[in-house]
Amino acid sequence: VEDETILSKTLKRIAEKNNYSADVAETVSQALKLVQEHSYKLILLDVNIEGCDSGLTLIDQVNTKDTNTKIVVCSGHVDTKDVLSLFPDLTAALNKPIKFQDIEEYLKEAS
Fold first, then answer.
1. From CA 17, how far away is CA 66, in angstroms rounded?
2. Which terminal Cβ of the chain has fewer Cβ within 10 Å, N or C?
3. Cα-flanking dihedrals φ and ψ of residue 28, to 5°?
């Protein structure tokens, strides 16, 4: 879930390059619809989604539907340590710019 189009396309390509399927949502409402329709092993979530107070509103929705889904949050504006303290069940919290090697590792761990 990433509102920066170039980054979301890059992340999708990384997943597909590593033989994983990936969906992209650029808004929380798009992400909620996808989460309701599908099960995911991993969700990469930008905590500052455009048009919403916070992408964090999505975390409880995901955890309610499927507690096995790993969630990695990322942000270029919020201290990710604070996010981890609010949501200790998160898999990880990354600061932007994201290291693509980290994403590949989280994909492997989730599969």
1. 26
2. C
3. -65, -40
Query: Residue 57: helix, strand or coil by DSSP?
Result: helix
Please report the sign of the dihedral spanned by the C-alpha atoms of residue 44, residue 47, residue 50, residue 52: positive
CA distance 50 to 91: 23
CB 33 within 8 A of CB 55: no
For residues 67 and 90, is the Cβ–Cβ distance under 8 A? no
Place of tokens 């989730």: 110
3 state SS of 45:
strand
The distance from CA 89 to its chain's CA centroid, rounded to whole angstroms, is 14
pLDDT > 70? residue 6: yes
